[in-house]
Amino acid sequence: MSSLKEVLQKKIEEHRPRITRLLKEHGDVKLGDVTIAQAIGGARGVRCLVTDVSYLDPYEGIRFRGKTIPETIEALPKVPGSAYPYVEGFFFFLMTGEVPTMEQTLEVVEEFKKNRELPLYVIDLLRTMPRDTHPMTMFSAGILAMQRDSVFAKRYQEGMSKMDYWEPMFEDVMSLLPKLPTLAAYIYRMKYKEDVHIPADPSLDMGGNFAHMMGIPAPYDDVARMYFLLHSDHESGNVSAHTTHLVASALSDAFYALSAGINGLAGPLHGLANQEVLRWTMGFMDKLGGAEPTEENVREALWDTLNSGQVIPGYGHAVLRKTDPRYTSQREFCLNHLPDYPLFKVISMIYKVAPDVLREQGKAKNPWPNVDAQSGVIQWYYGLTEWDFYTVLFGVGRAIGVLTNITWDRALGFPIERPKSLTTAMLEEAVEKA
Ligand code: CMX
Questions:
Q1: Which letter, b or e, does each residue of 321-348 get, where b requires 16 or more Cβ atoms within 10 Å of its Cβ?
Q2: CA 192 → CA 136, 211, 214, 389, 408, distances in Å?
Q3: Is there an atom of ligand 1 within 6 Å of 311 CB?
Q4: Considering Cα of 382, then 385, then 386, then 391, what sign does the dihedral take?
Q5: Is 388 among the residues known to form the active site?
Q6: Domain holding 305: CATH number?
Q7: Residue 5 placed within a domain
Q8: Whole-number Å distance between alpha carbons of 251 and 52
Q9: 61 φ, ψ to 5°?
């Protein structure tokens, strides 16, 4: 058994009695009430999901397994010559809550390498799709197509005890996750690089090999490692994580569940916002017609967007109430690598102006930037200017978190998800009785 699986099994065995005890002895303890505003308003703030993989504090931002972003980067084994950790070691950490040794990390690196290659039928499928299909549609379809290889689905058909569900789920995750950078790079090169592909380099880790297959030189390998880590997990209530969890709760396998989660990520209020930020910014620059942007014309353009009933992409959040630390982390990367890049200066100018504009408008509960406001400029700087591909990068990263979560969902025996709905008349009746 691999070191990762062994540690995971131990953690699962330690964790199971905690859930059993909570359910059996304290199942009636209240975590909160649900208001009409929450029932109508997208269940905002309703505490009804459980995960230990990450926790999102409105003011502090995300913690992965109890660690902030800088603490996580600091703690994990680094790729030689790189400031960023192995994605594989990060995956070990998310899955088990334990910081892996270099040896344990390299074991995952080797295991992932074995599972990188895409089945030929996925390539055939992608090639039958019209080339102008959105890359997120291709990404989701590629994942879904691989469902035929699900070990979980096969073992379920053969008959399997509930206690064993996590094992084939974990096996599917170990098979699916390493294929995602390959799938993403294939879509990218097929759509935007004259269909000329670059074979994997067997000497490289997941982040390094992704940069290699994309055809973008260093330090893009570090960009990839940073992106995948930052976008991995944001607790369980966001659309992509919740969808993946919900679909998997019906005992749909990892392929069905992730493909569904990726479809949610493709919405402009969620992951697609990173492409929207670039689209908005480039539209703004085009209108300037080569003139130097000023704070005043940024402000005007933001108001134009709001006055036309549209959202300012990359700003606001359902949970966060301050600048997203994932934004800050990428901003620091920009300050180190591209401080004088004109596009970065525009993005920084928007950061200076947009919160006041949103506050003045008075609608958004959080006027601060989220992860998507700062991610596109880095891609653009390294030559990845096809912004409709940006959400695929988010998707590869997000898979690390959500696939970890559904492995744990099966390990802890979480049931099929099924909240209760009420009619409008029932809400009105509740008001009368209140
Ligand atoms: N621009 C304009 N209006 C905004 C806004 C923004 N950036 N953020 C929120 N608002 C508006 C909402 O549309 C809502 O308007 P209505 O009352 O007319 O419906 C009002 O402010 C209150 O919304 P909220 O409670 O502050 O925010 P929600 O929890 O409903 O929505 C989010 C959160 C992220 C969807 C929203 O802030 C938004 O649309 N942001 C822009 C899109 C974006 O950047 N999404 C990416 C989020 C991160 C990610 O998942 O990748």
A1: ebbbbbbbbbbebbeeebeeeebbbbbb
A2: 14, 15, 10, 10, 37
A3: yes
A4: positive
A5: no
A6: 1.10.230.10
A7: no
A8: 20
A9: 90, -160
pLDDT of residue 1: 86
**At which residue do the structure tokens 């209108």 appear?**
287
Tokens of 176: 């699916």
Is 293 a member of any domain?
yes
Q: Which spans in 41-96 are helix H?
A: 69-75, 87-96
**What is the average pLDDT across 398-426?**
98
* Minimum CA distance residue for ligand 1 atom 47: 270
Looking at the structure of the chain, the number of domains it has is 1
Tell the residue nearest (CA) to atom 3 of ligand 1.
311
Ligand 1 neighbour 359 (Cβ under 6 A): no
Output b/e per residue, 292-304; b: 16+ Cβ within 10 A. ebeeebbbebbee
Residue 285 belongs to a domain: yes
Q: Which of 258, 244, 255, 263 is nearest to 147 (CA)?
A: 255
C-alpha span between 382 and 236 (Å, rounded): 32
Annotation says 317 is catalytic: yes
Whether 356 is covered by a domain: the verdict is yes
The confidence score (pLDDT) of residue 141 equals 98
**What is the extent of the structural domain holding 371?**
273-381
**Amino acid in position 25:** E
The DSSP secondary-structure symbol of 162 reads G
Query: pLDDT-based confidence at 12, cuts 50/70/90?
Result: very high
340-349 pLDDT tens trace: 999 999 999 9
Work out the percent of the chain whose per-residue pLDDT is above 90: 99
Q: What is the pTM of this model?
A: 0.98
Which of 242, 270, 324, 409 is labelled catalytic?
Answer: 270
Q: What is the pLDDT of residues 109-127, one digit of tens each?
A: 999 999 999 999 999 999 9
| 422 neighbors 218 (Cβ within 8 angstroms) | no
Tokens representing residue 258 in the block: 């992730």
